[in-house]
Amino acid sequence: MQATAWVCAVLCATPLFAGERMSVSVCTMGRLSKNVMAGAEAEAAALFHSMDIEIVWARCEAAPIGEEAAQQHWFTIRLRDGGPVVTGPASLDTLGEAFFSDDQGSYVADVYYQASQALASRQQVEPAALLGYVMAHELGHLLLGPGHAPNGIMRAAWDSKDLEAIRYGSLKFTGAESARIHKVLQDTVSRTASAF
Questions:
Q1: Class of the CATH-defined domain 19-179
Q2: What are the C-alpha distances in Å from 59 to residues 76, 118, 188?
Q3: Which of 38, 111, 128, 154 has the highest count of CB atoms within 10 angstroms of its CB?
């Protein structure tokens, strides 16, 4: 009977989400509809959830900075007004930018929501969905580093086929990118744990 109680205690204490976890603060710098922002967060969360990674959304003011942010897997996305107008293939350099630092890790990215929304309007893509994919792309850079891939969400420019995939929720990280993201998140946890 005691063994059964012990097994139940262990199993009941296991978290429902057994994958990796990271915190993301979204700081709105300008005016953006709360519905669009909530939809974008849901879209980005779904992309990472499909890789068994949970995003915990947090207030902008709560975000740590520097080494502490990197150790805690805490990333900040600043949603900014403006950004260049996209006329051809959707260059991700015009929709967002991740910032890299050798000494403190990479944890901050800008996303230009007016440029994203203008592209969404022209390409008949749900604005919140496109914004969520741009956010996920920039989070991908913060986890994977600079550089782009020949296909998938980490392409340098999204063409009409990619935008169609966004419409249907089928543009994803590649299997290799997913594995690398998991490794980055696990390695950071291991380094933090060994420091104590």
A1: alpha beta
A2: 10, 27, 22
A3: 111
pLDDT digits (tens, 9 = 90+) for 73-99: 899 999 988 765 555 565 666 899 998
Contacts of 70 (CB under 8 A, 6+ apart): 104, 105, 106, 107, 188
Residue with tokens 């909530």: 38
CA distance 189 to 193: 6
Torsion of CA 68, 73, 79, 84, to 10 degrees: 100
Cα separation, 192 vs 196, in Å, equals: 7
d(CA 130, CA 103): 32
pTM for the model stands at 0.83
Distance CA 153, CA 174 (A): 8
User: Tokens at residue 137, please?
Assistant: 């792309």
Q: How far apart are CA 93 and CA 124, in angstroms?
A: 21
The three-point CA angle 192-65-145 to 5° equals: 70
The answer to whether the CB of 44 falls within 8 A of the CB of 50 is: no
